[in-house]
Amino acid sequence: MRFGPKEIIDKNGRKVILRNAEVEDAEALIEYLKVTTGETPFLIREPDEVTLSLEQEQNFIKDKIDATKELMLIATIDGKHVGNCSLMTIAPYKRYAHRCDVAIALYQEYCGCGIGKIMLQTVLKVAKNVGYEQAELEVISDNYKAISLYKELGFEKCGHFPNNMKYTDGKYADADWMMKKL
């Protein structure tokens, strides 16, 4: 779907532009995936697992633009990509049509500036406007800052997944399933 642009000001007084991802953003989004997966243990892949081709990422972005109920929202500061937040359907079935999945990540240097909160609020409003009744997400159980933000936005923990991820060092991480009625 198409969105924006929308201008916001972060906690540091910087102008942030929120807009849907465009095909021209594909290269920056691939680089973003590579960097952010290395910056935090809370994402689902290892940096070496980001193997998308430029064409694959461009097609993914086109699919999001063409979708009526999905959005890849990106944030930029001075034209530099700083993070993204996605809205996705759970499954293409009528029985799941009321549910959506949201996900967010920012480059670490932009965390704590209020950008993520505004991006999530924006995506949740879009989700409600296109007819979703509940938003869902999965979060690593010891990602306390993210969980605090999700609770502030009205998400509640509804489930727990022990040993959800296994890291390359052999350690495991649990995850929580959270949901918000829209």
Automatic annotation (TrEMBL):
Matches recorded under Pfam families: Acetyltransf_1
InterPro entries (alphabetical): Acyl_CoA_acyltransferase (IPR016181), GNAT_dom (IPR000182)
Keywords: Acyltransferase, Transferase
Example of a GO MF term: acyltransferase activity, transferring groups other than amino-acyl groups
N-acetyltransferase domain residues: 16-182
Domain of life: Bacteria
Keyword Acyltransferase: yes
Claim: Acyltransferase is one of the keywords in the record: yes
Protein name: L-amino acid N-acyltransferase YncA
Source species: Lachnospira multipara
